[in-house]
Every structure is written in C-alpha cells, then in structure tokens.
Amino acid sequence: MNFIKKHSTYILLLVIFVAIAIIEIYKPKPIDWNPTFVNSDKIPYGTFITFEQLGDIFTDKNIKESFIPIFDQVRKNESQDKLNYIFIGNDLSIPGIDANKLFDFVNDGNNVFISTGSLNSALDSIGIEIGANSFFHSEPEANDTVVNINAPIDTLRNANKFIKKSLKKPGGYLLEKKLTEGYISAFDSATTTILGLNKFDKANFVKVEFGDGNFYINTTPYAFTNYNMLNFEIAEYSSRLLSHLPVADVIWDEYYKQGRKESTSLLRYFVKNEALRWSLYITLLSLLLFCYFESKRKQRAIPIVEPLPNTSIEYAHSLARLYEGKADHANLAEKKIRYFHEFVRSKLFIRDIDDSEAFLETLTIKSGIDKDNVKELLELIKNIQSNDVIFEKDLIHLNTGIDDFYARIESKKKI
User: Which region, left, alpha or beta, applies to residue 127 given φ > 0 means left and ψ of -120 to 50 means alpha?
Assistant: First the structure.
C-alpha cells in the first residue's frame, strides 16, 4: 500500500497511457478516401493492386518504381533497352526541364503511358488538351468536341469502350462515378490515334506518335485504384488500357505523387501508424510531465542532530579539583573577586569600582540589598585582597558571601 500511495501519480499516468493506446488500437478506423494513387497505399484510392498486377501484363519484364525526377531517371536508363514509363495520378504537373527530358525519352523510341485528369502546360508539345464532364450530364454539351466513329452512343451508365475490335465488349465497360469525368477535348489528328471512348463518344484514350516513340494518354485514372480494381469488369478495362503498351521493362513513377522515397526508419513507421503515433505522443507527454514534476527541488531528509551535552558542571568540578589539589586558595579567591567585579560592571552598570563611600552607596541602590550586607561583603573582599595567605575557610567564606549576593539580586528580579 505504501508503494502505491508513494507512486500514485506515475501509476495513474501509466493506466491512462495504456487505456488510450488500447482504445486507439481497437477503435474502428475510418476509411481514408483520399485519392493518393500511391502504389504502396491499400486505401480505396491507392494503386497497390494495379502495381502488383503489372507482372501479369508485362510478363518476365522488370518492374521498377521511381522516386526521382524524370531527368535523373532517364539519364540512369539511357544505355538500356526501350522502356515503358507509366504515370497514374489525378493530375500530372511536370517542370519544364523534366518535360523536355521526357520528350527526348519518347523521341528515342520509348513509350509513356499517362492516366490523369489534367496535364500542365509543360506538356503542351504533346498536342493534347483534357476537358472534364460532370458525372450527371446525360448528353454532351453543344460546344464539346464529339468524335464520331459511326457507332451508336451507348445508353448504359458510364459505359467506356475501346476502338480496337479485339478489345471491344458488348455494352462497353460500366465504370463507377469519377471514372469518366475527363476526356480528350483537343488533339492533333495527324499524330493522334483514338483508342477509346467514353459514354458520350468522346475520346478518353489516345496514342500520340512522338518521334520514334509514343505517348498513351488516358483520362480515367480512378480505374486503376484499389476500390475499382476489386471489380472484375473495371480490372479488365484497366489491364486492357495498359496492354496497348509493348511488352518491355516498366518504370512506374511515384516521384510526382509523393516525392523522393521516404525514410523507412522506425520513428517514421510509428508516425505513419495512427495507433502507434498516439502511443508515441502520449509517451513523450508523459516524459515531459515526469521531467517537470521531478525537476522541482525536493526537501532532503533533515538529519537528527543530538544536542551537545552540558558539561559546564563537570568542567567546574574538574577545575575545583585542580585547584583543590594545588591548594592555591589565593589564586582562586582572586578569580572569584574578579568575576564579581565583572558582574557589577556588566549587570549593574557600575564602571568605577573602589573602596569609596560613593561606590558603596551606588552598589546598594542598584543591587537593592541592605547597605549593611553590601558593606560586609565589600570589607570581606578587601581583607582577602590585603592578605598574602588565604586559608580554605577564608575562601569558603568569600564564596558564600558572593553567591549570597547573586542570590539576593536574583530574588529581587523575580519580585
């Protein structure tokens, strides 16, 4: 019980910490609908499943994820065979220097697949512009560019279709919300081949010839997310989009979605995991509180100091035995008289001590003792001071007279 009482604060903090950690670990986790398109995310709008299935599409080929800019990645692979570079994200914004390197990369005979809802101006050289439909549009607007391929408009909800006969499917591919919002609103017909259409017969998948290579531009990036890849029909549609690329080694871009690869340190793992992150925060807070309270000055235990023994009586006895053994009565009488004079000066405040009548009168008044008694004591002191030899009886008589004087004064104070 004493231990619990003494450490109650720390025990309480520990209980609170454990309780919060358990609650955080076992409470239902809200679904994260954030569209990250990151290949390591298993949330609905991550691309973990698509990245894992690339090996089935590009059989026996090397699949590599990139966490560095295009400029650096292309320079590292200049001496290798032709490659496929895949970009999948809600939007693709590439700096000018990287865009120029990407054009050189495609011009040299490589292929780039881009599935996105928007392109930045640095990629204008491709000659592609991307527009956006509202999900609730039932018909295309009057000013929209409609690609007529002499095929009836599919009346099914969000039905996407391919142009290539071997990839066509009756009724098209029924895609969910957000999957067909983008479309190719403008392109150069001299270099562009339409490969796929959306519900409104607008191009949403094209191939753009560029030098010795090709750009494959698609506007349904959400078709590659985990949530939609669990649907067999959407998974088939996504795999057929990628199957237009030649079978070659693949570079999967992650840099333009999450930057350079994060550290895999234990601390970063704690921070990424919500329950562990809260445990870490609570631990740090507990340490701060502990340091704060422990930093306060504590009262040290006060040691018991035994009082010094009163040895004045023993000292007086020792001194008396010393003088008794030496039988030096005169010396002892002199010290007794000297002490009496000091008492008169310090206690009765009489500075001039002599044999005069004035001193006798002053001492009588200030001591409050009868004049005869005071006169008798002063005469006794005078006689002892005038004798060369002091006997023991004389010393005793002197000591008794002086002590009686002290006692009378003390009694006067009490009255």
Answer: left
Q: Are 320 and 335 in contact (CB under 8 A)?
A: no
What is residue 190's three-state secondary structure? coil
- Cα–Cα dist 226/50, whole Å: 7
E strand intervals along 94-157: 111-115, 129-132
Concatenate the DSSP letters of all residues of 203-234 into one string. Answer: EEEEEEEETTEEEEEES-GGGGSHHHHTSHHH
**Which residues, in sequence order, are bridge partners of residue 253?**
66
Count of beta carbons in the 10 Å neighbourhood of residue 209:
14
3-state secondary structure of 404: helix
> Within 13 Å of residue 88, how many CA atoms lie on the same side as its CB?
26
pLDDT tens, position by position, 15-66: 887 787 787 777 777 888 899 999 999 999 999 999 999 999 999 999 999 9
Q: What DSSP element (H or E) covers 126?
A: none
CATH 3.30.2030 at 48-262, yes or no: no
Can you read off the two tokens belonging to residue 62?
A: 């090397």
d(CA 204, CA 201): 9
Reading the block at residue 11, the tokens are 């025990």
What does the block give as tokens for 48? 């973990």
Q: Which of 187, 197, 199, 193 is nearest to 162 (CA)?
A: 197
Residue 250 in 3-state DSSP? strand
In 3D space, the residue among 86, 109, 120, 36 whose CA is nearest the CA of residue 218 turns out to be 86
Cβ pair 162, 195 in contact under 8 A = yes
Strands 129-132 and 63-66: unpaired
DSSP lists the bridge partners of residue 112 as: 85, 215
Strand arrangement of the beta sheet that strand 159-162 belongs to = 63-66, 249-253, 83-88, 111-115, 213-218, 203-210, 192-197, 159-162, 173-174
Give Cα 183 distance to the centre of its chain.
46
Which two tokens mark 309?
Answer: 């023994």
Note the pTM of the prediction, 2 decimals.
Answer: 0.57
pLDDT per position as a tens digit, 90-149: 888 899 999 999 999 999 999 999 999 888 888 888 999 998 754 333 333 444 443 333
Say which DSSP state 124 is in: G
